[in-house]
Amino acid sequence: MKTIGVGILGLGTVGGGVIDIINRHKDKMRDHAGVDLVVTRAADLNTERFAQLGLTSQQATTDAFDVVNDPSVDIVVELIGGIGIARELVHAAIAAGKPVITANKALLASHGAELFEAADAKGVDLRFEASVGGGIPVLEPLTHSLTGNEILSVLGIVNGTTNYMLSRMTEAGLSFDEALVEAQDLGYAEADPSADVDGLDAAAKIAILASLAFNSRVTLADVPAEGIRKLAPTDIEYAREIGYAVKLLAIARKHAHGIDVRVHPTMIPADHQLASVDGVYNAVYLTGDFVGDLMFFGEGAGAGAAASAVVGDLVEAARALQSGNKVIGCTCTDNLPILPLDVLETRYYVRLLLADKAGVIEQVGKVFARYNVSLQSLKQRGCAQKGMAEFIFVTHKTIEADMQSVLADIINLDVVGEVASMLRVEDLD
Ligand code: HSE
Predict the structure, then answer these.
(1) Which of 208, 279, 297, 424 has a 20 to 30 A CA-CA distance from 64?
(2) Distance CA 172, CA 315 (A)
(3) Which has the closest alpha carbon to 202: 152, 166, 237?
(4) pLDDT, average across residues 342-364
(5) Which residues pair with 154 in a beta bridge?
(6) What is the largest CA-CA distance in the chain?
(7) How much helix, strand and coil, in percent to the nearest 5, is found in the chain?
């Protein structure tokens, strides 16, 4: 059996994990999958990592292009991240006719079309299982095992940092700031947590999932993303009282006229399987027309999980190389339109601080009626602010544009102190 040379770009936690797996399970992969993987070259700017990972001076380099261009490298693993040098390296590898495995969600979600165009022109594999859901194998089923289905929806808890924070805000009543400090202390959140807490990481992931699920290109720029900064423990508590959990949900649904794709904090029924996904875990819930509902659950980050996904891709790419099988390539051929958020139809939870006096509900109710937004329930709560009362409104299904008009008008009423929060309510039925 001919060995397959692997070149790794970036020797951080995931790169180290890939080397570890190949060292530990090389024989198993050779005997059971029929591929003999050998790390022939690896690059990182931090030279201390070479010895730590047992790499010789012949294998290791600080110039990633050395790896891409080395004839001993049959498959390139890009683990540098970002859309700068990583993009150039992936293009260089494809131009050299080498399959590429990457964990780079930002690159795929922003430049997927150009990369696939280049890969398809060369007939080389471009695989990216580790870019979504860490160790959870979900992209592979979407491109292979589930192709006998029309995928109708993809719902994901795909950001471990925010899921951990929301779990702590739910179980311990922590504020956003307290949960963030805790997540940072535990190494789950970065010093600059914006990509996670503002929903951009999840948006890149649902763009990738939606592209594969609906065979239509969805980019990061297509995904309206709202994070969890404005969420208060009060909202989580009120949601719980009416039977809902709050999750940062990445949603992609196929409708008759296009794709609805978005990321925002969402109230979901407390007895739905996704509501039980807590801590740093991720889950992706798919519905196909024949298979029905499927849920994939597992560790969404970390060396072992992400490296497991990378090595799975390596084995598949190596098998395709050995067998000379044509790779599947770009599957985004349907060009479905992306629906604007304005036309979304869902239910809404709104928390308002209103003057605690006669007639306020009538005034606010008139604004809801003006845009034909029908209320399902209304509750008055106490309020710490003198002279004000807190009200929770939950609507029936309504159009996003109408709900936004209600909020824009309501804030102008004298009796309204604050629109404290607005959450979308998904019944997932
Ligand atoms: N920052 C990501 C998360 C990790 O919190 O899930 C891997 O994408």
Answers:
(1) 208
(2) 43
(3) 166
(4) 95
(5) 252, 286
(6) 84
(7) 40, 25, 35
**Which of 350, 348, 392, 396 has the alpha carbon at shortest distance from 372?**
396
Q: Taking a C-beta distance cutoff of 8 angstroms, is the pair 42, 7 a contact?
A: yes
Distances (CA, A) of 310 to 38, 64, 87, 157, 375: 14, 18, 18, 20, 48
CB of 105 within 8 A of CB of 204?
yes
pLDDT band of 155, cuts 50, 70, 90: very high
| Burial readout 221-260 (b: 16 or more C-beta within 10 A, e: otherwise) | ebbbbbbbeebebbbbebbeeeebbbbbbbbbbbeeebbb
205 is a catalytic site residue: yes
Q: Ligand 1 centre from 107 Cα, in Å?
A: 15
Instruction: Using pLDDT thresholds of 50, 70 and 90, give the confidence band for residue 301.
Output: confident
Q: Is the pLDDT of residue 295 over 80?
A: yes
Q: Which residue has the tokens 């001993």?
A: 72
pLDDT of 170 strictly over 80? yes
| Residue-level pLDDT at 329 | 87
Which residues, 6 or more positions from 372, have their beta carbon under 8 angstroms from its beta carbon? 398, 402
pTM above 0.85, yes or no: yes
Kindly write down the DSSP assignment for every residue of 37-73, as one continuous string.
Answer: EEEEEEE-S-THHHHHTT--TTTEES-HHHHHH-TT-
Over residues 77-89, the pLDDT tens digits come to: 999 999 999 999 9
Q: Which residue has the tokens 């198993």?
A: 28
Out of 105, 122, 205, 247, the active site residue is 205
Instruction: Give the model's pLDDT for residue 41.
Output: 98
- List the one residue out of 424, 425, 376 whose CA is nearest residue 404: 424
Cα 139 to Cα 136: distance, rounded to the nearest angstrom: 9
Closest atom, ligand 1, to C-alpha of 131: 8
User: How many angstroms is it from 205 CA to the middle of ligand 1?
Assistant: 10
Pocket of ligand 1 contains residue 299 by CB under 6 Å: no
Decide if 144 contacts 119 (C-beta within 8 A). Answer: no
Q: Is 201 in the pocket of ligand 1 (CB under 6 A)?
A: yes
What distance in angstroms lies between residue 122's CA and the mean position of ligand 1's atoms? Answer: 31
